[in-house]
Write a structure and sequence with these properties.
The complex is a heterotrimer. By secondary structure, chain B is mainly α. Helix content of chain B is 75%, strand content 0%. The chains are: A mainly alpha, B mainly alpha, C alpha/beta. The interface between A and C is medium-sized, with 29 and 34 residues.
Amino acid sequence: MNAPADDALGGLWWACRRDLKLAMRSRTELAVIVVFFLLVTSLFPLAVSPDPELLRSIAPGIAWVAALLASLLGLSRLFAADHADGTLEQMVLAPAPLPALVAGKVLAHWLATGVPLVLLAPLAGLQFGLAADAIAVLAASLALGTPILSWLGAIAAALTLGARGGASLLALLVLPLAVPVLIFGAGAVESFASGLGADAHLSLLGAGLILAWVFGPAAAALAVRIAHE
Amino acid sequence: MTTTAIRTGSGWYRYASPATFYPLAGKMIPWFAAAAVVLAAAGLYIGFFVAPTDWQQGESYRIIFIHVPTAWMAMFTYVVMAFWCAVSLAFNARLSAMMAQALAPTGAMFAFVSLWTGAFWGRPTWGTYWVWDARLTSTLVLLFLYLGFIALRASIDDPRRADRAAALLALVGVVNVPIIYFSVRWWNTLHQGSSISMTAAPKMAQTMLVGMLLMSLAAWAYTIAVTLHRVRSIMLEREALAGWVGEAAAAEGTAAAAAGGAPR
Amino acid sequence: MTQPAAFEGLEAHALACAAGDRTLFESLDLRVAAGEWATLVGPNGSGKTTLLRAIAGLARPLAGEVRWRGTPRRAGSAEWHADCLYQGHAAGWKDGLTARENLALQAALDGLAPAARELDAALAGVGLERQAGLPFGRLSAGQRRRLSLARLSLSRRRLWLLDEPATALDRAGLDVLAALIDAHLARDGTALVATHQGLPCMRPPAVVELGRAGTRAAS
C-alpha cells in the first residue's frame, strides 16, 4: 500500500502522497484559495477604472499580486496542522531525511494551490483583455514563480510555528522576500507585451526556481527542527 | 552529543562569554560614542557649510549627507547582523545572537531615516515626496526585512528558540538582499520614463565625498556605541538568573555611584 | 587487547535541561540496559517530557551526553531515528484519515511495509478492528490511544521512549500496553516510559524520579 519511506526519494514521495490525500479530503479549503484569487482580480477594476487600455497594462501586476496573496492564504496550513497533532514531530524523528519529507509537503502544496492558480491565469487574463500569447506568458511566469513562493512560504511558515501573530506575521516575512519573484513574474508579461520578449525574465525565474529547490529543503528542515526545540 | 557550558577560555574566546564581555562592552561605549559625536560634527560641518552649493539643486541637496550614509549603514548593518546570526547558529553562541538582536533596531532606524531624508530631498527638488527609484525601493524592502526579524523575535516566547528562528530568517534575508536589489534596479531601469533618480546625485566634488565619508564613519561609530549599550541591557535581561549579573551590576554600580551616575 | 564490551542500552551522563528560563534538572545520570526498562516519575512540570525529548533529540540539553549502545548518539541521524521510537503527548495521527490509513502511513514512515493482513492483525490486536475504517477524528480518546499501541506492536525498534502512553487507556488497554512492553523487552529492547500509573508488566521497571528540587535518582 504505502512504500516504506526510508530514503530521500521514498520520503519525498511519502510526504507528497500523504499531503495530496489530505488536501483532497478538504477540497473546500482549496476552492477558497482559488475563489480568493478571482475575487482579488475582480476588485481592481472596481477600485481603479474599467478602462480596457488601463486594465490591459496593469493586468500582469494584478494577476501576480492576487496570486501572491492567494498563496499566502494556504501557507499557514502547510505545517501548522501537522505541528498541532504531532505528526510533524514524528517526521522530524523519522529515518527518512527531513529535507526530503519537507520537500514532499511543499511539492504537494504547490500541486494543490499553485497549479490551480496557473490554470486560472487565463481567466484573469481574459478579465483584463490580455492577448492570448500574453496570457501564455503569464501562465508560464506563474508556473515558474508559484513554486518559488511555495518555498519562501514554507521557510516562513516553519519559522512561525509556535509563534504568536499567525498569518499576519507570515505575510510580513514572506512578502519582502517575494519582491524579486513579483518583479520578474509580472515583468515577464509586460516585457512580452511591449515587444522585448520575456526570455530574460523567465530565465531568471527559472534560475530562482532552481535556487529555491536547492536551498529550500535544507532551510525549511532547519526551521522545522528549530520549531521543535 | 556533548554540549558543555561556556567555559572561560584564553585569548579572544574569553569574550564569547557574556560575563566577560559585559564589562568590556561597558568600557568601549564611551570611546565610540565620542568618536561618533566628533565625526558627525565634522561631517555635518562639511556637509552644511563647507561643501559648495550645487548649481542645479541648490541647498536642499545637502540632505544627502544624511540620506546616503544612512542607506549604506542600513545595508551594512544587515550584513553584520546576518554574520552574527550565522555565528550563533554555527557555534550555538548566545552572545552572537544577542548582538544580532541588538543590531536590528539600529539598522531599522537607519533604513527609516534614509527613507525620510529621501522624501525631504525629493520634495523641494522634484516636487514629490516619494520616488520609486532603485535605492529608495530597496531600502524600503530592507526596512520590511528588519521589521520581520524584530517581529519574529518578539513573537516567540522561548529566547533561545527566538534566537535560532530569527537567525535563520536573517540568513535567508541576507541571501535575498542582493537579489532584491538587483531585481529592483532592473525594474527601475526598465520603467525609466522620467530621469528622476536619487542615484543620479550631483557630481561629487571632493569636499562632498569627504563629508559623506565622515558621516558614514560617524554612523558606524554610533551604531557600535548604541549596539554595545543595547546588548548590555539584553544580557542583563536574559541572563538575569546567572550569578555574574548581580556582581557585574554591583561593581559598575559602585563605580558609577562614585562618579555620580546611576547604575544600569 | 580486547575492548571492554560496550554497554548495550541507553545512558545519559550529567544531563541538564531547561524549559524557557527555568532549569529543570542538572547532572542527571541514567542507565537502562537492553532487555530492561525504566519509568520516569515525578510531579507535573518536573521535566519528564523534556527529558524524553532531549534523549530523542528534539530538544537541546544545556549540558551532558546521551549514549546509545556504547557510542554517543547523534541526534538527527538516520541510524538513531531507526533505532529510537518516540511517542509524545501529541498522538501523532491525522484526524482526516481513517485509523487504518493512519497506521499504514506511520508504518511506512517508520520504514516498514506491512502487508494488509499485518495491518488488520495489528488493529485487531488493540481492539480497533471495527473502527479501522472510521475517520480518526470520530474515535474516542481511548480508541485514539490504542492506535499508538498498534504502532508499537508493528515496531521492531530497539529503544522506546514513551511519554504517558497509558493516558485514557482502560484496564484492557493497560494490559495490552504491558504485554507489548514485555514482548519488546524479551526481544532485548530498551524502554523509558514516563507514566503516572503502574503498568502490569512482568518485569519490574527501574524508577527514575524527577523532583521539584531538580534532582534525580539513578536507575
